[in-house]
Amino acid sequence: MDDANAVTENGNSHQTSLSDSSVLDVYPLSCYYFGSRESVPFKNETVADRVLRMKANYDAYGMRNCVAAVIVNSIYKLPGGRLRPGESDIQCLKRKLSSKLSAGEDGRGPEWEVGECLGIWWRPGLETLLYPYLPPNSKRPKECIKLFLVKLPTSRRFIVPKNFKLLAVPLCQLHDNDETYGPIISGVPQLLSKFTFNFVEP
């Protein structure tokens, strides 16, 4: 609660210099419904198998283009995935959000509001780590992941596979916690630092 108050007070002190697009409405978790559906099988592969699969895909299709959603409240593993041929970043992200979170409920749910691109991560080689920049010596990167801000409406249903968990993690817990969440998710608080959070009471 102290962290939330500090963010609110700090945001209000700079409110006059921020546009509406820099203000994120954050609603209580009680506004959202969380359910489950049948489990999704995992790929049973070793690191070596994954490298071989990525190499085969790279040889066939070129650099792997992916998108991921930063949702406030946030999620432990950012939902998203690989673009289909001819598909835009936004189209892919909306498709992946609906299929992985089943929130659209056969098109009856509210449309996903995909905002600006917050950051881009690059994988220079098949066996290398992801970087928040493209190294100058990398001429043929193997993967590009773009992080987009996704704003939640006042209410939404989330349905995830039974072998997955959907978590709302405080930004203070994510910050600089690379060991637990990895470099992309632990860097989300810094990406969101330019926004003011408007905590909406139920």
From TrEMBL:
<dbReference type="InterPro" id="IPR015797">
    <property type="entry name" value="NUDIX_hydrolase-like_dom_sf"/>
</dbReference>
<dbReference type="GO" id="GO:0031124">
    <property type="term" value="P:mRNA 3'-end processing"/>
</dbReference>
<comment type="function">
    <text>Component of the cleavage factor Im (CFIm) complex that plays a key role in pre-mRNA 3'-processing. Involved in association with CPSF6 or CPSF7 in pre-MRNA 3'-end poly(A) site cleavage and poly(A) addition. NUDT21/CPSF5 binds to cleavage and polyadenylation RNA substrates. The homodimer mediates simultaneous sequence-specific recognition of two 5'-UGUA-3' elements within the pre-mRNA. Binds to, but does not hydrolyze mono- and di-adenosine nucleotides. May have a role in mRNA export.</text>
</comment>
<keyword id="KW-0694">RNA-binding</keyword>
<dbReference type="GO" id="GO:0005849">
    <property type="term" value="C:mRNA cleavage factor complex"/>
</dbReference>
<keyword id="KW-0539">Nucleus</keyword>
<dbReference type="GO" id="GO:0003729">
    <property type="term" value="F:mRNA binding"/>
</dbReference>
<dbReference type="Pfam" id="PF13869">
    <property type="entry name" value="NUDIX_2"/>
</dbReference>
<dbReference type="InterPro" id="IPR016706">
    <property type="entry name" value="Cleav_polyA_spec_factor_su5"/>
</dbReference>
<comment type="similarity">
    <text>Belongs to the Nudix hydrolase family. CPSF5 subfamily.</text>
</comment>
<comment type="subunit">
    <text>Homodimer. Component of the cleavage factor Im (CFIm) complex.</text>
</comment>
<keyword id="KW-0507">mRNA processing</keyword>
<protein>
    <recommendedName>
        <fullName>Pre-mRNA cleavage factor Im 25 kDa subunit</fullName>
    </recommendedName>
</protein>
